[in-house]
Amino acid sequence: MTVFLPPPEFLDSPRGRRFGAPPQRYRTDALPSTASVVIVGGGLAAIGLAGTFWHAGIRDFVIVDRSSRLGGQFLDRADTLGQRVLRSPYDHHPGAEGYRDCELLDFARLRWSLLTEGERLQVRLAQAGHRSVVPMDVFEAYCDHVVALHGLAYRAWQGDVRQIDPNDDEVLVRTSLGDIRAENVVLCTGEESVTAPADWWPGDTPPEGVGYWSEPVGVADGPTVVVGAGLSAAHVVSKALAAGGQVHWVIREVAERYQCADVNASFFRAEGRSRFHGTTWQDRLQMMGQHRRASVMFEFRPALTAAEERGSLVVHRGTGVTAVHGRTDGGPAAVDLSDGTSVSGHQVVLALGTRPLIGAELLPADVVCARDGWPDLDEVSLAYRAAPRVHALGAAACMVLGPAARNIDGHRVGTSRIVTSILWQLETSPRRTEVTHV
Q1: What is 240-306 written as a DSSP string?
Q2: Which of 403, 406, 294, 390 has the alpha carbon at shortest distance from 357?
Q3: What string of pLDDT tens digits covers the 438 residues of the chain?
Q4: Which listed site, 183, 210, 229, 393, has its alpha carbon 20 to 30 Å from 97?
């Protein structure tokens, strides 16, 4: 088997270059009282979905998001980690699939003179059909391009969605900006950080000197302890090592997993998704447990291996965590391990992964019908079976589309199903919401 091994220097790809127009901010006027579709969340899935709605002739959509710009939460988290390149290749992007939009690869080629020589090599590899690395700067500018091209910021408002009440004819969306009635709602709420188990420390808040990967992590005055085996953990470890610090890396698995994508690439293809279709619930749970596991990009391996060999990185493999202690009386924070040892440092950073937001905090429980942490979705429309006007796009659809549902390419597959379903619903609605095909 051929393994894609990009050179590790791409982890230091430049950040902060402007490849296009500045990002467009959300509207600040009153939220409309009605819409054909309300999109909850403004991340990468929402960008691709809204762009596809635009092409399909559904222009009466509204996006409500907590961030101040489309894709903002994803990009903010990347900057918090210091992430410089994407894990996704050039053919995975939030542009509308099946329409004559500018593709991400074309967008990069048009900015050829602004790329480094190494980044140009990656473009050439992509043109030849090989997997390649996308600089974060290029991807961010492309997202802004898609937003501007389809006028998405003019349909977006910054606010919190507090409750969703579906009925047979419409859906009432209650937000911090007021209520809005829609014929359909799509949840693009993504994932949230997994918090530590309740028995790791007393109380609800992390003790002094203990935090999560999604929070800004400064340079510690002493050693850093990182708990987690995924890409976020690798970024935190690398950042601490680059600052000249000592790092203890606690991996509860028996070894690190290095791979190009965070799920098996076969799941991005139709035959991979068919492994989920028609199988039993237990079979799907087993596949999710096997293939949705923490992993690190191959680019990190040379630097992390070298750091471990010289002793600046100590990796604790196959060890669970029994307790976490904060700093007290000027002493260090500490993590107690299942083998009876303890590691200490000036700060402890927890990178415990993410879990999908399935709508449980917004929808009635009898609509979500949660089972093993997953919602009950129709396999054709990705709508909640108990509320056919409410759909889920992204990680919440993993038990229908497989683990690739949480990735950009999986968003495209889900978008196609949702848009097709909503088009049919709007065109057969007694109210005959006007839909103009483009």
Answers
A1: HHHTT--EEEEESSSS--B-SSSS-GGGGSHHHHTTTTT--HHHHHHHHHHHS---B-GGGHHHHHH
A2: 406
A3: 445 566 677 778 899 998 877 888 899 899 999 999 999 999 999 999 999 999 999 999 999 999 989 999 999 999 998 899 998 889 888 988 778 788 999 999 999 999 999 899 999 999 998 878 899 999 999 999 999 999 999 999 999 999 999 999 999 999 999 999 999 999 999 999 999 999 999 998 999 999 999 887 766 678 999 999 999 999 999 999 998 889 999 998 899 988 877 766 667 667 677 777 778 899 889 888 877 778 898 889 999 999 999 999 999 999 999 999 999 988 899 999 999 999 999 999 999 999 999 999 999 999 999 999 999 999 999 999 999 999 999 999 999 998 889 888 889 999 999 999 999 988 877 655 454 444
A4: 183
- b/e string for 309-326 if b means 16 or more Cβ within 10 A? eeeebebbeebebeebbb
DSSP reduced 3-state for 141: helix
Contact 209, 347 (CB under 8 A): yes
Decide: 326 and 210 in contact? Cβ < 8 Å.
yes
3-state secondary structure of 356: strand
The answer, as to whether pTM is greater than 0.90, is yes
Spatial neighbors of 132 by CB under 8 A, at least 6 apart, are 6, 89, 90, 122, 123, 125, 126
Token pair listed for 392:
């889920």
Q: How many CA atoms lie within 13 A of 78 on its CB side?
A: 19
Residue type, 431: R
Residue from 281, 303, 275 nearest 405 by CA: 275
* Residues 6+ positions from 241 with CB-CB distance below 8 Å: 247, 303, 307, 312, 313
- 24-28-34-40 Cα dihedral, nearest 10 degrees: 60
Pairing between β-strand 383-384 and β-strand 387-392 as defined by DSSP bridges: antiparallel
Element (H, E) at 204: none
- Domains of the chain with CATH codes: 8-192+355-427 (3.50.50.60), 195-259+295-352 (3.50.50.60)
Rounded to 5°, angle at Cα 113 from 109 and 119: 65
Sort 28 into a burial class: Cβ within 10 Å, 0-12 / 13-18 / 19+: exposed
